[in-house]
Amino acid sequence: MNEDDLGTYQLLFLNKDDLRLVERILEAAFEQVRERVRGITPRNQESMLWPYDAQQMRTSPLGRSLLTIVGYLDSRMYLSDEQAKQALSHVSRLLYGDPFSDGFLFPKDFHTTDLGKLFHKAYVQLYGLDNLLTPKQVYTYLEISRQRLYNRVLDGTLHPIYYDDEMRFERSEIEAWKAERQLRQQKE
């Protein structure tokens, strides 16, 4: 499905709650940008922002990525896992990115927000429950303390995925961490 067809299809078949969610997120992001622009606009200068328009914002890269995530969760849409991953990454960087690195850090309790719930539903669909490990499985597998695991979550090194309000971790991310630890131990 190409991008133009995708946008048209999404708007025709999205349920109204999903569309309202996308529009709320877009409006909040727009207001955040407006605040930042005001903060850097020189005195006696008008900011260069246009008025908020929901229809136009849905066509923005952020809007299209949000629609892709919602569409990925809709079984009637034929979106690839790669499209979903790109959209999740794009939204994460735009809304929670560190301007001085390639990383991002979700706010505390992100998983309890509407956007967080949307993200985590997409992550569970993307990776499947079999590839999501509980904290206990992780610290047992890695032979580390529980605190060390949670410290990596707090510093943004690990990104938990929530399923039914329970924290999980993507298996491949944990295996990469284990390989990194083994390499470091071999060098010592």
Plain-language structure description:
This protein starts with a helix and ends with a helix. The chain has helices spanning 3-13, 16-40, 54-58, 61-73, 81-96, 114-127, 135-142, 146-154, 171-187, and strands spanning 132-133, 161-163, 166-170. Helix 2 (16-40) runs antiparallel to helix 4, helix 4 (61-73) packs across helix 5 (81-96) and helix 4 (61-73) crosses helix 6. It has a three-stranded antiparallel β-sheet with strand order 1-3-2. It is mostly helical and 188 residues long. It is built from nine helices and three strands; from the N terminus they run H-H-H-H-H-H-E-H-H-E-E-H. The protein is globular. The protein has two domains: 1-106, no CATH class; 128-188, Multidrug-efflux Transporter Regulator, Chain: A, Domain 2.
What key attributes describe this structure?
188 residues, mainly alpha, 2 domains, three-stranded antiparallel beta sheet, 3 strands, 5% strand
